[in-house]
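Look at a sample.

——
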Amino acid sequence: MQKFCWMILAIIIVGGCSQNEQGREINDNQRPNITEVKNTNIQETDRKSGAETAKRLTNLAVKVPHVNDATAVVLGKYAIVGIDIDQDIDRSQVGTIKYSVGEALQQDPYGAYATIVADPDLNERIREVAADIENGQPIRGILNELSDITSRIIPEVPGDPVEQTPNKVMSEQKQTIDNEQEQKMLEDKQNKQSNDHLD
């Protein structure tokens, strides 16, 4: 009887283990392909070539009319160029100057991914970052500062120009007219309602 119990126990253990193996085969076949990714670290960039590229981009930016001075910070293929323009320039012309600088930089292979900034505060922060890079400050701190700067701006880079089709221009003009008419109707309605409540 004792031999019989041991045999049944052995059969159950062997049977249970074989079920486990079959379950693994099914799970291995049902799992999607897994891609292994290596852990990457921030790689140090060549500061000398970045400084040379920054100097090249600032020289290109200064050649644009109304640009007094420029500062650039380059990390990899990306650059932020801060421009100092004449104070007496009208605000509407600032966008045109930034666009002109962007076109000049786009012609250069190192300026294709450049962001142009004309804000004096951001320009000063870019100068500080450039000085930190020249002084050999740690890259991580510089990257944090650059991320703060870029989060405050919208790139002013001439990309693929959006061509206006006549239908699109007409619909935009019509929408402007409709908005003006709706605005006037709303103002009239508000005036009427407010006048009725004054009595």
Summary: The chain is about 60% helix and 10% strand.
